[in-house]
């Protein structure tokens, strides 16, 4: 079975990059085991995230959660410049109290069914100024410059969440995305641990299963069966890392028997659910 590739590696709580590419190879569907924020600066880029498609404008903010299956297409007629941040779940948890939660921007994006935030009036926005400060910090070579960039990133995250809480950002609608496919994606996400046979989903949406499978593949680039299996395995990995026993994870994630679960898990992650490396 075709699987989506994990890309990007995070060896610390977060990593910060400022990248400009004159030519970018097309990046196929993949996922990360950490959260990712992209601040788009310039270029011609289309992002496809969980079946939703976005044409970016300068200083759009792209939020990709851990496990989100996504790809991007870049028009190489002009340079592609962006700031990318990889963020571990531990980093987000460290900045969570009764009074604030820096992961709120991701939670609100889920509620709004949009991965891309746009600043309506940049010239009046403290968030835009914090992006500019973060951008300029990459050219700062003074004392403790790396720490300074980290401080600028935290400032950006604070302004981002303030703007989200005060509804000062636009959540961008998807471009040319089929509403039925979006409904199927939402349904799968809400019932991931339950029976999700193709026949059952087709009956729920009152459509032919063959039409549904063809439409899903056409709109998202992957089959419905692949998508369900991948999302279940990513959930399984998260549960296992939190200490849930493998047998319980198997059934909690919708697999009917442990051998099927273990085989699929090893194929995707290269280790058994118990953590043993595959030969």
Automatic annotation (TrEMBL):
Keyword Membrane included in the entry's annotation? no
Q: Name one molecular function that GO assigns to this entry.
A: sequence-specific DNA binding
Q: Record's SUPFAM superfamilies?
A: Homeodomain-like (SSF46689), Regulatory protein AraC (SSF51215)
Q: Where is the HTH araC/xylS-type domain?
A: 182-274
Question: Which InterPro entries does this one have?
Answer: AraC-bd, Homeodomain-like_sf, HTH-like, HTH_AraC, RmlC-like_jellyroll
Q: Which UniProt keywords apply?
A: DNA-binding, Transcription, Transcription regulation
Name this polypeptide is given = AraC family transcriptional regulator
Give the originating organism: Dorea longicatena
């Amino acid at each position: 079975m075709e699987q989506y590739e994990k890309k990007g590696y995070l060896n610390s709580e977060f990593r910060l990059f400022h990248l400009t590419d004159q030519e970018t190879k097309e990046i196929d569907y993949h996922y990360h085991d950490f959260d990712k924020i992209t601040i788009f600066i310039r270029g011609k880029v289309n992002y496809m995230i969980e079946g939703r498609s976005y044409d970016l404008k300068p200083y759009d903010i792209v939020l990709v959660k851990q496990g989100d299956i996504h790809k991007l297409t870049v028009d190489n007629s002009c340079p592609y410049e962006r700031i990318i941040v990889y963020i571990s779940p531990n980093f987000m948890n460290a900045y969570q109290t009764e009074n604030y939660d820096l992961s709120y921007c991701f939670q609100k994006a889920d509620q709004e069914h949009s991965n891309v935030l746009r600043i309506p009036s940049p010239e009046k926005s403290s968030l835009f100024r914090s992006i500019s400060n973060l951008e300029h910090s990459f050219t700062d070579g003074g004392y403790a410059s790396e720490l300074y960039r980290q401080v600028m990133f935290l400032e950006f995250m604070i302004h981002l969440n303030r703007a989200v809480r005060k509804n000062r950002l636009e959540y961008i609608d998807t471009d040319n995305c089929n509403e039925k496919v979006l409904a199927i994606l939402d349904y799968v996400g809400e019932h991931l641990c339950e029976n999700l046979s193709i026949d059952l989903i087709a009956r729920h949406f009152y459509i032919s299963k063959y039409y549904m499978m063809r439409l899903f593949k056409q709109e998202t680039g992957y089959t419905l069966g692949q998508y369900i299996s991948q999302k279940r395995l990513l959930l399984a990995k998260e549960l296992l890392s939190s200490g849930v026993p493998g047998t319980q994870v198997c059934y909690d994630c919708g697999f009917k028997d442990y051998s099927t679960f273990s085989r699929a898990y090893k194929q995707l992650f290269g280790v058994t659910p118990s953590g043993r490396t595959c030969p």
